[in-house]
Automatic annotation (TrEMBL), chain A:
It comes from Homarus americanus (American lobster). This is 28S ribosomal protein S7-like. Pfam families: Ribosomal_S7. CDD domains: uS7_Mitochondria_Mammalian (cd14870). The keyword Ribonucleoprotein applies. Keywords: Ribonucleoprotein, Ribosomal protein. Residues 79-232 form the Small ribosomal subunit protein uS7 domain. One of its GO terms (biological process) is translation.
From TrEMBL, chain B:
PANTHER family: CHCHD1, SMALL RIBOSOMAL SUBUNIT PROTEIN MS37. InterPro entries: Ribosomal_mS37_met. Transmembrane segments: none annotated. This is Coiled-coil-helix-coiled-coil-helix domain-containing protein 1-like. GO terms for cellular component: mitochondrial ribosome; nucleoplasm. GO terms for molecular function: RNA binding. One of its GO terms (biological process) is mitochondrial translation.
Amino acid sequence: MSGGRRLAVGLSQCWLSLNTQVLLSRANRQSAVILRNYSQYPPTFVKPIYQPAQQKDLIETGEVKNLEFTPVRAAYNSHTSSVFHDPLLRKFINHVMKTGRKDLARNLVEQTFETIKRIQLQKFNEAETEEEKANIECNPLVIFHQAVENGRPVLQLIPIKRGGIKYQVPVPITEKRSHFISMRWYKQAGKEKERTVHFPEKLARELLAGAKNEGRVVKQKHDLHRQCEANRAYAHYRWS
Amino acid sequence: MRLTPIVLNSQYYINRNRPKNGRRPTRQPFPFNNNLPIFLRDHVSGKNDKTNSVACLQDMSILFACLKKNDFNQAMCHKEIESFQNCHENFMHTQRLRKEQEKQGLLVPGERNLSHRQINLLLKKHPQPK
């Protein structure tokens, strides 16, 4: 009950600030309305910069001066300045997560990394020459990044209806979405397994294969590119 | 009972002439009814303003040719992929800039393709004579 009331109060405050904005800038009325999507914070609040490297960048370029008196939104509890924090990995854990069970998702990904480490260390110890040993990457995070990079598609197919028929039209893809698709494919590849194999084990195998530019995900990417190539005649159907 | 017009000129054309034999047209000419005011409005609708531009088709076809030649090995088409992605990024950036400008209703002097907002702004300044 109290939660509902608080929400209502927040909403009314939203409206107040919106109204003042409208009064202030009648010309930009529409843009002001679009800017104010449902949010806890007014648009003056900027997102927190929590990574030490980015903070260092800001200090070096002198952009901190602009942020000196800017109000900042509260950081999420997953935002950390730890040296082990990796934004892409955090995203991947969120993709693996089901029904908000983040601890489980994080454990699964940690187990995956452990499996990768074990496999690579075994290879490392079995290698005989120094040259072979130098070629074996033992850092699971590097392998993960390489695998995601190798799984990223350049194009995607979107259905566009022309004359009552849906055509699969190849369109360019943004960097963010290509990362998402790659990670989604890895997650799906990890899920397609026998009942007796566990998710982390399968995912580890897939990531290792992906880092070597092999495996199911890379094949899926190639299939998508082939399909795009086959449908290149429809490329002019897209509108953007 | 419909009477023939007094002036025996007919109301219709045959080979761009009005025959003078006093025949009635088989179909009455469509009457003009003055429903709407007979002057142009001071605004245009933005309904048909969707730009139908398809960018980067050239780069895409080059990329496809390269991929097909190298059996979809991306490592061989590094340059083509980069140029394609740059083209798309560039296009999105200019699109966003243009949209922002249109939203603000900024008038760029010498602009040929005006958005409906810009046209409306101009029409407001210089309304139609009535």
